[in-house]
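Today's session is about reading a structure prediction critically. Students often jump straight to the picture, but the first step is always the sequence itself: look for stretches that repeat, for charged clusters, for runs of hydrophobic residues. Only then move on to the predicted structure, which in these notes is written as discrete structure tokens rather than atom positions. Here is the chain we will use throughout the hour.
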Amino acid sequence: PMSSKTTPGDLDHNIKNYKRPEFSVIYDAEEGTAAVKNETTGKTYDMKTVVSGSGAKYQDKDGNYFWEHQGGFVFGKGDRDLIEGKLK
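Below is the predicted structure for this chain, in token form.
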């Protein structure tokens, strides 16, 4: 049988199993910023609005992004989507 050992950075494992990371977002419309918190890891990303073709997209200085679109969101880094989910 395959082992299910995971490393702390193994986001792909989180996507495949049913314990999806939960995200919460605190928006500041005046500043054009969003504090995106991964409730699973407790890490908060301080993001600023960036231009996107559709939806609202925020990105931090390290290249992490949070993109809302049609009731869902994508969280990723650089040019790679890591986590997709639905907004509550």
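Discussion point for the tutorial: Strands lie at 23-28, 33-38, 43-50, 56-59, 64-69, 72-77, 80-86.
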